[in-house]
Q: What sequence folds into this?
């Protein structure tokens, strides 16, 4: 007997993240992006790692800020919030230091930790 996973089931699994497995996975994607920028320069590796990084953090932010919305709207609003955070952190990184491979990876790590921490703080308030 097979179980069909719905979007809500996967979303609950990711946002629950009690042992920080998905946060660690998101940081691992940042490391893969960094290594790809330095050594491989493969568009396939970069695309897969970036999309995984984006999806995990979009789900974190959507669950943190837009819990009452339906799944699709929560995903879209989480995407917009993620882009806002990414732009702001990228801008700050650009002002403080040049935006090279190291500082891009630092900005992505800060963003991953911020997304995970936001979800955890919202869960503790409930």
A:
């Amino acid at each position: 007997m097979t179980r069909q996973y719905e979007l809500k089931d996967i979303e609950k699994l990711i946002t629950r993240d009690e042992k920080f497995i998905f946060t660690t996975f998101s940081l691992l994607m940042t490391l893969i992006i960094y290594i790809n920028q330095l050594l491989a320069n493969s568009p396939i590796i970069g695309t897969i790692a970036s999309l995984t990084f984006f999806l995990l953090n979009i789900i974190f932010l959507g669950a943190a800020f837009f819990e009452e919305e339906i799944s699709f709207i929560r995903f879209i609003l989480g995407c917009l919030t993620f882009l806002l955070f990414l732009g702001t952190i990228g801008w700050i990184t650009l002002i403080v230091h040049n935006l090279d491979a190291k500082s891009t990876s630092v900005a992505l790590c800060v963003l991953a930790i911020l997304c995970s921490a936001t979800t955890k703080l919202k869960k503790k308030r409930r």
About this structure: The mean pLDDT is 82.
